[in-house]
Specification:
The structure is a homodimer of 201-residue chains. In chain A, 74% of the residues lie in helices and 0% in strands. By secondary structure, chain A is an all-alpha fold. Chain A binds a DNA duplex (30 and 30 nucleotides) through residues 7, 28-30, 38-45, 49-50.
DNA sequence: GAAATGACTAGATTAGGATTCTGGTCAATA
DNA sequence: TATTGACCAGAATCCTAATCTAGTCATTTC
């Protein structure tokens, strides 16, 4: 760890490295400061607590996912196709990002209790906002039915996506992601779209 | 506990009473046999193990729920309305039945580990079968689209319903059941139904 | 002879006390 | 003024003796 890098940056990088490797409880503040080559007191110049440091790492990690999710939601294709892509991107990203997955899907070995709930709430809130924005755009464009309540639909879509991705991670659910996405695309996508009068016979 | 009742019945009733009160781990076989006014060895004449006794109680409890679920699925109204009623009945019943809820929604204080997973698998399997039957009937009647894959749709509908009910039990999800049901009805229900040619202009 | 019983035991779990650890603080140092 | 690391209250862990419990089966009862 180069000490040319500013202390705060070093601490954030060290914190991410340690939390990803060992999880929240097993990582000590001394671990982080040692890895950052700084004193323990300096940690508290940048973070109010160990928990706040963890949340900062979650938020930085979440931005990486959200960048991909934005691309999925603004890509080409119909709304159902884009939602389907979003779920696939989510499953893919969370399959790889153990730190995010642990809090959102309850992997207690890495994080549990109040800090896990706080991290999950942050993720849920941001993903729901993203979905709500996409639904609003869809309504403005006329590709989503006017009667759809944006906030409720965003919340429900979040729960649906969450469940499908969780089922992918849970072998006993016996629901392969591809099959789930096909059915979801079929059922939920169709339920969302606006009905335009047919153009042909 | 009347000893006119046959021992097996007494054991089942006592097992249910004890497991509901104390959960799986805290209930001992001695607790059950004492409440049933029978000897410990008699327990093993009727159940192969403590876990099998628990599963017998889960199965009996599940039948009570499934009876209600059948009524919901065979009631009046459109398919979306009936699915909506099913989710509401589920939330209601599981809200009251702590024993079933503990295994299906992960309340570790009452049951956890292999026995909890076994109980959850039984519930998932039975509910999915019920949904698949309903979807098959719907396809035969022409009220569900022919293109819907029954088993996948049943699995996805289970996951969706499970997520919505879980969100009802989890305050931090911030998704009231009524709002979720409205949106679900709107989105999923519409996605399922068969498109009949309009009869009017 | 069949059914019921409860004493027994191997392994699991718990309780309690000693020891160690750790998040956060702040006096000392650079 | 910024940084450091010793300090400490409370939390967590470890160890070991004691207790508990699921399952068995020899004995008793009907």
């Amino acid at each position: 760890m180069s000490t040319i890098t500013p202390p705060r940056q070093r601490l954030i990088e060290a914190a991410e490295q340690q939390f990803r490797r060992f999880g929240y409880r097993r990582t000590t503040v001394d671990d982080v400061t040692r890895a950052a080559e700084t004193g323990k007191g300096s940690f508290y110049l940048h973070f109010s607590s160990k928990e706040d440091a963890y949340v900062a790492v979650v938020e930085a990690s979440l931005e990486r996912f959200l960048a991909k999710a934005e691309i999925a939601l603004h890509g080409s294709g119909t709304v159902p196709q884009r939602l389907r892509t979003l779920v696939a991107v989510t499953a893919d990203h969370y399959g790889d990002d153990e730190l995010l997955r642990a809090s959102l899907f309850g992997e207690a070995a890495l994080v549990e209790g109040a800090v896990a709930r706080r991290a999950a709430n942050i993720q849920r809130g941001r993903i729901r906002s993203l979905l709500a924005e996409a639904l609003k755009s869809g309504k403005s464009e006329g590709s989503i039915r006017d009667t759809v309540d944006v906030d409720n639909a965003a919340a429900v879509l979040f729960e649906i996506g969450w469940a499908v991705v969780r089922a992918e991670f849970d072998a006993s659910a016996d629901l392969p992601l591809d099959a789930a996405l096909d059915t979801l695309n079929d059922v939920v996508g169709l339920g969302l779209i606006a009905r335009t009068p047919p153009e042909g016979p």
